[in-house]
Amino acid sequence: MQNAVATYEVPYPTVSEAVSDILKIKEERLEFKTSHKVHGSVLIPLFASFDSADYVRENQKVVLAASVGYYSELNYESLHVSARIGRRDETVERLSKSGLPKAAVRALGGAVCRSEWRSNVETPANSIRHTTFYLLYEDLQDFPLLADELHLRAVSVLTPKSEIERLMTERTGRREQDYLLKIEKRLFDAKGVEFEEGVFKLLCRMGFDVAWENRNPPFDILAASPNGCLVVECTWDTPSVAMARELIDQAQSCRSTENPLVLPVLATNRTSWSDLDKDLLNMELRGEVYFMTRDRLMQALEKLEVESASRTATYLGLFKW
Amino acid sequence: MNDFQESRLRSHLLNVCKSVKVSLAIVRESQAWKPVYFLAEYDYLPPEGSFKILLHTSQFRIISGRIQMIQWQGFEEQVRNGGKLTVSLEGGETLAIAFAAWDARKPVLSLAWSRGKHGIAVGPIFEPISSEVRTKLRAVSGRSCRTLWPHMRSPIPPFLKP
Predict the structure, then answer these.
(1) Which ipTM did the prediction report?
(2) In this structure, is the dihedral angle defined by the CA atoms of residues A203, A205, A211 and A213, taken in order, positive or negative?
(3) Which domains does chain A have, with CATH numbers?
């Protein structure tokens, strides 16, 4: 009976779950979970590994940069980095091993050092298909040890933002231009029709099917998707309860059995969410209306910028180079 | 990695590491404590005086402690060849753990990149995740712990307990 009392105080249905939770080991790595065999491991960490690695653009050149973390008692002169760059034409550029710079930042109470390694690359950014970094530990005589390996795909940003801005310069002879900086300016510096256009373009980029209405309807933008629709009113004035109520009524009139989920959205680039009136916040808490405030517009644009780059890179694969 | 290389690395790390963190899941069988899981990690933190009890029941315990490098050498000998291991628990209690002989597999080098990618990090002893040499050990007898947990449960439902 005494055993039972003790066991019921233990909130684990199995031995493996108890060991996994308490010793922080993935349960599927415990052999007695599946085969019920008792077992163990001896781990000898090498106390040196890559923190991160990336391509850095310096003028027109590419520089390889890696951050290495190592235990402070290790002899840093024994740590070397080399790299192998695979080009699109199947040839290879090899960077011979070189040591870490002496200057290191200490972390974790001084126990861990971090050093930044850099090396210039001959291969142009657009020719790089992938790169492998190797971290070598050579403190043991005639026994170099591969302490870590890290892989990078092709250079992700070939054309920097500043160059895209230059390419997108507004000039006569261009029928239409749509670019992120333009949306950003419309969203945060404009009012009236230009602000509406900024919100319209933002919603387009988000992937909604969007209609920008004439002056007659009491809302500015209808954004449709298979999972719900937005009825958007843009305002440069400070949002008011009356404004929100009118929009809620308009959203209600758009609802139907075929289009059951319609959210009224009041977009403003003048006010932050934390500055909204208490009554308005309560309306949002009740799920009656959503306020797309200046800070939320900013968050949405930042998320969009990251996602756009990733999505465009995928579509870029459809085009043959 | 071959045995020679592993041995060279170990002797090198003896000068660098300060302790080995030993974690054990043990079960009481026939009045003796026996291991069901065992993990030893070389560490750069200083050793501690005693083992902490992380889970305590009358028949099953999980304990962990950071022991001296020299102490580990004797400890490992008993794990591999079989023997009685005595550990001091916090609070002054002493616990004897009976190890049967365990077989060691060939040491394997596991790179940090691969470990991070597959999400198989073990223990926060080195930040960032470090590459490691892992030697797996298995009890020679292959004793099963399949029936451990049911034995620890009461045949009487908890709501009927006095």
Answers:
(1) 0.81
(2) positive
(3) 48-152 (2.60.40.10), 163-310 (3.40.91.30)
